[in-house]
Amino acid sequence: MSHPHEGVLGFADHKGPIRLSADVIVVGSGPGGGVAAMELAARGHDVILVEEGPAFSSSDFDFEAGATMRKLFRESCTRVMQGNGFFPTMQAIGLGGGSLVNSAISIRAPGWVLDKWANEHDTPRLGAGALDEDYAAVERALGVAPTPEAVMGERNLVFKRGCDALGISCEPTPRNVRGCKGSAECFTGCRNGAKQSTDVACVPAVISRGGRVLTSVRVEGVKSERGRVTGVVGHVVEPFTGKRGYSVELDAPIVVLAAGCMATPRLLEKSRLGVSSGHAGRHLLAHPGLAVCALFDHVINPFEGATQGYHSLHFLEQGMKLEVLWGPPAVLSVRFPGFGNQLKSHLVAFDRMAPFDVITNAPHSEGEVRGAPFGDEPMITYHLDDRDMATLQRGLVILCEIAFAAGARAVLPGVHGVPDPIGRDQLHLLRDARVTAKDVIAGANHVFGTTRMGQNPRTSVCDEWGRVHDSRGLYIADTGTFPGSPSVNPMLTCMALARRTARRISGEG
Amino acid sequence: MLTSIEQRIVAAASDAMFPRGGAIEQSGSDAGVLDYFEKMLAEMPPKNRALVRLLLAFIQLSPLVFFFKAPFTWQRDDDRVATLEALSVSSIYFLRVTFQSLRALLSIAYLANDDVARQVGAVPNLSPFEGRA
Q1: Which of B108, B110, B113 to mutate: most A Cβ within 10 Å?
Q2: Count of CB pairs separated by less than 8 Å, A with B
Q3: Residue A334 above 80 pLDDT?
Q4: CB contact under 8 A, A303 and B40
């Protein structure tokens, strides 16, 4: 079997200035870009897929967290959103984008979410059921299926037992994997090659249809003439250092921006396209999340089992999704209290620990993405509203209840001012505490909304097919188009919308 | 990559954060935190490298500014521990974030040591369920 990246052009292949033309240029190879390029190529378009980062093979992934984080994430994984707190946010850079490093969670947004978008956010054609065909097609292409029992491991099963004991519904997480062995290394890249990230599931399909895939090329602007897109310009960039090399100019009458909701609005701003409404870069939405670490008397061995094998959508309509969590100890240990011997004693107790997390759809919180005074990286602000913080706090309490119902002897809640750890009889201390954004480390890796869709060009950047209102031939196919939170992990919805955009470009739909 | 004063700050902070003994025998120095920190810094983009340097400078000067004590590296071991403790539980959010940021970077470096990782249980196993009934 050939390597999935066979035919992908990388930094070493770029021997001089690049000048190419195609029917469609897709900028960004993550969930949106990968699917858009695959679907367009399948419909006979001559496609060029452009990715700023390099391609990573299974053998490039490193078990050691720090090395992987510096290689795979923008700003060496130190990116934060700033506002009424510091909120770490991770965006991947590499062929496959975020699909390389996420836990492969692939869930459809519930119908009531799409109806809410339709009714409250000016996307009437996207109500419940509107994406069913696209969801199904993407699920087939990526092998989405519930996590099998055989690779769950005790970390996932204790969560299920806790939920069952409390009557909280939960289910095996649907994921885009084929042949997962439960190595729990999703976050640092799947060394088993089981994860169907877009570099594995979509890129080979693009190339087999004659498409071209260029990595290590940073697109810095979209070209246009009299309101009509004509291509993109940029530079070859050295992997990991970002040093600029040869110039790149790609011509096409159609450009699909899928650079992610942090980068796409910056590209629009630099190109002076899609900015007439004044909404590009604004309305940054996120799923802030918090985690607890449940401490058990029996061995959990959390190092094995699907990274996030079980989840609960029981409280989804109340703004909460509950999940099992796993990541490298160096990342998870930020939840531990103290330092010195106290920290060491928690570190050696990892084998009896199960981390769970809650994310909220945060309907009251918002931020924006702007150009920084220097450098290429954006300046990102975010304000976590007290009401959404209260939802997270409630979620933490429920996670503790699940942990105790599963037999945990104590839980590390990771909240400033609340004892760490707490026992079952101390849960009221967490429940009754006045917790603000400054008392926790709330990460937010699901981000969207900065180029939101809608029918009204005055209040949105693109229409319901991702077509930018004020520019012909320019489309957006990343999570920036979401007009609201999908309430669940955004990848599958992003992919379904990207497929819908590709169908539209091809004259379908 | 690190200046000599920055090296002293990282070394002092890593041994205050991870002193020798306890549940894991190795100290920060034993685990090679300083060398790893150098490598980590070298691989960061310039802006983020500058922010890490600012963090180190802040750690060095925060005892002086906030607690009216000597700069971090001038302190005795016990006082450094007290400084970290004060930062970690401070009522000032920015000081707590400073502590958390330092601890995150040092933890990444500490846990990158194979012996330390093994004691934590982090041993790679690509097929943990293979052969199980």
Answers
A1: B108
A2: 138
A3: yes
A4: no
Statement: residue B132 has pLDDT above 80:
no
Q: Verify that A119 and A167 share a domain, yes or no.
A: no
**Do A119 and A261 fall within a single domain?**
yes
CA A78 to chain B, closest CA, distance in angstroms equals 7
pLDDT surpassing 90 at residue B117: yes
The answer to whether position A1 is within a domain reads: no
**Whether residue A456 is found in the same domain as residue A481:** yes
Cα torsion A416, A420, A424, A426: sign:
negative
List CB contacts of A23: < 8 A, sequence separation 6 or more. Answer: A40, A45, A46, A47, A252, A253, A254
Structural domains counted in chain A: 2
pLDDT band of A2, cuts 50, 70, 90: confident
Cβ within 8 Å of A, B 6-35: 16-19, 21-24
Cβ separation of B126 and A305 shorter than 8 Å?
A: no
pLDDT tens figures, A54-88: 999 999 999 999 999 999 999 999 999 999 999 99
The answer, for A78 touching chain B at a CB cutoff of 8 Å, is yes
- Residue A316 and residue A406 in one domain: yes
CATH number at residue A162: 3.30.410
Q: Which residues of B touch A338 (CB under 8 A)?
A: 88
Is residue A126 one of the residues assigned to a domain?
yes
Condensed to tens digits (0 to 9), the pLDDT of residues A364-389 reads 999 999 988 777 889 999 999 999 99
Does residue A168 sit in the same domain as residue A194? Answer: no
Partner residue facing A182 (CB), from B19, B40, B128: B128
A136 touches chain B (CB under 8 A): no
Q: Contacts of residue A375 in chain B, CB cutoff 8 Å?
A: 45-47
Is pLDDT of A4 > 90? Answer: no
Nearest CA in chain B to A184: B126
DSSP state of A78: T
Please tell me the distance in Å from A248's CA to the nearest CA on chain B: 23
Q: How far apart are CA A384 and CA A230, in angstroms?
A: 39
Cross-strand partners of A467: A475
- B54: which residues sit within 8 A by CB, 6+ positions away? none
Do A153 and A137 sit in the same domain of this protein? no
Does the interface predicted TM-score (ipTM) exceed 0.90? yes
In a domain, A374, yes or no: no
Chain A residue with minimal CA distance to B89?
A416
Place of tokens 């993550």: A30
In this model, does residue A1 exceed pLDDT 70? no
State which residues form the domain around A357: 146-175+289-364+385-439
Cis peptide before A483 (omega within 30 of 0): no
- In this structure, the answer to whether residues A416 and A304 fall within a common structural domain is yes
Distances (CA, A) of A136 to A3, A103, A139, A206, A313: 26, 20, 5, 20, 20
Is A460 a member of any domain? yes
How many Å lie between the alpha carbon of A336 and the closest alpha carbon of chain B? Answer: 10
Both A483 and A420 in one domain: the answer is no
Nearest CA in chain A to B108: A330
Q: What is the pTM of this model?
A: 0.96
